[in-house]
Amino acid sequence: MAHLIDKSALVAEINRQIMAIDNVPKITDTQIAVLSGNKVILTKLLSFIDTLEVKEVDLDKETTHYLLYEHRSPLNEIMHKADLKSEMQYHKDIENAFKAGFELGMAVSNKVQKGE
């Protein structure tokens, strides 16, 4: 599975950083300005994170859908005429490639793109 960041853990860490800024003894005007700028950036980052949708994806279901309805290759016809073992290995290779691409965020099905 892909390495993903837990949204709630990220938000908690950003909030911790904001609280740490609030608790720093400010000595100079420069330090105050820098810390204030950091706090503004972290607050804007939190605002952006709140706009992100958390969506669970059934990777096996998405892979099956891709293999049955979306995958097009000139090799399909050739592999359908090959022996069963070769055809099954071909489909397994396509499935593994799709899952790897999906997990890397490089291959997203039409359903996920449309937000269904």
What features would you highlight for this structure?
116 residues; mainly alpha; 6 helices; 72% helix
Give structural notes.
The protein is an all-alpha fold and 116 residues long. It is 72% helix and 0% strand. The protein has two domains: 7-51; 59-114, no CATH class. The chain is built from six helices and no strands. Helix 1 (7-22) runs antiparallel to helix 2 (29-51). The relative contact order is 0.11. Mean pLDDT is 79; it is low at 106-114.
In short:
The chain has 116 residues and is mostly helical.
* Approximate helicity band: over 70%
Radius of gyration: 23 Å
| Order of helical and strand elements | HHHHHH
When the domains are counted, the total is: 2
Annotation field: number of helices: 6
* Subunit organisation of the chains: single chain
Mean of all residue-level pLDDT scores: 79
**What's the end-to-end separation, in Å?**
22 Å
As a percent range, the share of strand residues is: under 5%
Helix/sheet category? mainly alpha
List the helices and strands and how they pair.
Elements: H1 7-22, H2 29-51, H3 59-70, H4 75-81, H5 84-103, H6 110-114
